[in-house]
Amino acid sequence: MLDQELKDLWQSPQASTSITLQKDRLMQEVTIHAEFIDEKIRKRDRLEIWAAAALIPISLGLAYWFPQPLVKLSWVLTVFCCLLLIYQLKKGARHRVKDFSVPLGDYLHQYRLYLQEQIKMLQRVVFWYILPFSFCQLLYFYGLGREGWHMGINLIVLGVINYVIYRKNQTAVHDDLMPQLEKVEQTLALLEKE
Fold this sequence. Notes:
By secondary structure, the protein is an all-alpha fold. The protein is built from six helices and no strands. The longest helix is centred in the first third of the chain and has 53 residues, at 13-65.
């Protein structure tokens, strides 16, 4: 008797309605979060690109103004670091979903690729953001002849700034991007069941 009841429940139209409602709710949730996260990423990219673009002429001016060769080199390298930062942010945005008229499954696949690119980029922030700029700053400090406690204070400040940058990026990965990627994966799984 129990087996027959389970079969009847499974084959009843109410189970199908429940799955459809869950799919609709999940899709609505993914869409709302997608718009929110995409706006946060766009805002971050605009701010970072603007700051890097503003730092380029400043760095060139400082490279011209300082007489010490290592300090000049540090500011010229800072220009290249700014260009690398702009390139990385543009590269990370290349998979942004632009065509919203595609079928739902294609949209979700594109959005998943975009999220995966953003996650990969932010997980490697040490290599394309922190280390290059830190090297430039260390070269600058060394070129100025900083020694002893001056160098120690500069290294502590640089370390704190780098830690904040790293934590902020990892928090974005774990609090925003990974949960959204999981929701997209769940929605894709529901769509593929149909």
